[in-house]
C-alpha cells in the first residue's frame, strides 16, 4: 500500500523545469520563431533602405531622417522578440521568471563585453552624445557616423574607410562632435606665410577668398586669426581661417577650396616670396 501511494504521489507531482521547457518548446514553435527572426532581419534591412533613400532625397532634413534608423531597429527587434515570447512560446509567468533568471546568470557571465556594448548602444541612443550624420573624433579616428547599432557604431573616415567602434569604448572615452546635429560645421584652414607679409592685406584677401567659395555657409561668421610661429627654424605668419561649410559632406572640399584660393591669390600678389626671418643664433 505504501509503494502504491508513492507511485500515485509521483504521478501527481508537478512537472520538473526540464519537462516544462520540453512542453513549451516544440519543433513547430522553433521553426515559427526562426521564421519571425528572418522576417525581422529583412524588414530591418528594408526599413533602413527606405530611410536612407528618403534622407538622400530630402537634403535639408537628411540628418533628422537618418537618426530614425537606430530607434527603428531597436523597436522592430523588440517587437519581434515580444511576439516570439508572448505569442509563439506563451509560457506561464513562473516559468518565464525561472528560465529568465537562469539564462540571465549564464549569459551575464559568458558575454560581459557584449552586454556592455549593448547597454552602451542603448545609452548612446537615449543620451545622444552624437547621432547618425554627425562628424565625431574618437581617439585616432575621425569621420561621419553612418550607423549606431546595439554592439558597435560605424564611422566613415576622410579616406572612405569604415571603422567599427564598440559602444562600450565610446561610452568610456571622450568624443568630440563637430556639428552636434546641425547640417553645417566649422572648417579650419591653416596657411603659412613669410613673416614680412602685409598682414592686413592678407586678412582681407583670405576673407574675400572664403566668401568666393560655393561651399560657404553664409549665416555664420568668417574669422581670420594671425599667429606668429616657428617653422623649420624660421619665423612665419600662420593664418587660421575659420568658416562654416553649408553641408558636412563638403567639409574637406571646402577646406581645399579655401586653401587653394588663398594660396593662389597670395602667389599672384607675390606674398609667398617674402623675406625669410631665421632665428637669431645664440652667442
- Work out the radius of gyration: 31 Å
Order of helices and strands: HHHHHHHEEEEHEEHEEHE
Q: What is the share of helical residues?
A: 40-55%
Shape: elongated
Mean pLDDT metric:
80
Number of DSSP strand runs: 9
- Biggest β-sheet description: 5 strands, antiparallel
Structural class: alpha+beta
- How many angstroms does the end-to-end distance come to? 117 Å
Number of domains: 3
Q: Which percent range describes the beta-strand content?
A: 15-25%
User: How is the largest sheet built, in terms of strand order?
Assistant: 4-3-2-1-5
Please give the count of helices.
10
Question: Residue ranges: pLDDT <50 for 5 or more in a row?
Answer: none
Structural account:
It is a single chain. The protein has 283 residues and is α+β, with helices and mostly antiparallel strands. The protein has three domains: 13-110, no CATH class; 126-177, SH3 type barrels; 185-278, Alpha-Beta Plaits (2-Layer Sandwich), CATH 3.30.70. Helix content is 53%, strand content 20%. It contains ten helices and nine strands. The protein has helices at residues 2-12, 17-24, 27-57, 62-66, 68-89, 93-110, 112-127, 167-172, 199-211, 251-269, and strands spanning 135-138, 141-148, 152-156, 162-166, 176-177, 185-194, 223-231, 234-245, 277-278. Helix 3 (27-57) packs antiparallel against helix 5 and helix 9 crosses helix 10 (251-269). The radius of gyration is 31 Å and the shape is elongated. The model has no long low-confidence stretch (mean pLDDT 80).
Amino acid at each position: 500500500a505504501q509503494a502504491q501511494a508513492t507511485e500515485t504521489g509521483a504521478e501527481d507531482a508537478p512537472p520538473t523545469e526540464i519537462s516544462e521547457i520540453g512542453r513549451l518548446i516544440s519543433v513547430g514553435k522553433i521553426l515559427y520563431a526562426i521564421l519571425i527572426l528572418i522576417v525581422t532581419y529583412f524588414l530591418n534591412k528594408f526599413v533602413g533602405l527606405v530611410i536612407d533613400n528618403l534622407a538622400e532625397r530630402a537634403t535639408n532634413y537628411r540628418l533628422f531622417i537618418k537618426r530614425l534608423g537606430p530607434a527603428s531597429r531597436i523597436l522592430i527587434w523588440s517587437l519581434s522578440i515580444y511576439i516570439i515570447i508572448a505569442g509563439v512560446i506563451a509560457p506561464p509567468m513562473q516559468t518565464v521568471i525561472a528560465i529568465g533568471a537562469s539564462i540571465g546568470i549564464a549569459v551575464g557571465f559568458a558575454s560581459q563585453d557584449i552586454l556592455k556594448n549593448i547597454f552602451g548602444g542603448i545609452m548612446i541612443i537615449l543620451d545622444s552624445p552624437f547621432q547618425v550624420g554627425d562628424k565625431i573624433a574618437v581617439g585616432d579616428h575621425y569621420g561621419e557616423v553612418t550607423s549606431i547599432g546595439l554592439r558597435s557604431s560605424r564611422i566613415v573616415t576622410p579616406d572612405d574607410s569604415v571603422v567599427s567602434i564598440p559602444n562600450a569604448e565610446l561610452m568610456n572615452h571622450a568624443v568630440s562632435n563637430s556639428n552636434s546635429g546641425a547640417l553645417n560645421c566649422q572648417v579650419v584652414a591653416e596657411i603659412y606665410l613669410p613673416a614680412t607679409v602685409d598682414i592686413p592685406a592678407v586678412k582681407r584677401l583670405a576673407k574675400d577668398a572664403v566668401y568666393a567659395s560655393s561651399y560657404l555657409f553664409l549665416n555664420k561668421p568668417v574669422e581670420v586669426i594671425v599667429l606668429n610661429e616657428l617653422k623649420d627654424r624660421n619665423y612665419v605668419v600662420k593664418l587660421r581661417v575659420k568658416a562654416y561649410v553649408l553641408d558636412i559632406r563638403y567639409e574637406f572640399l571646402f577646406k581645399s577650396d579655401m586653401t587653394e584660393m588663398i594660396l593662389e591669390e597670395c602667389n599672384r600678389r607675390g606674398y609667398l616670396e617674402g623675406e625669410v626671418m631665421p632665428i637669431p643664433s645664440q652667442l
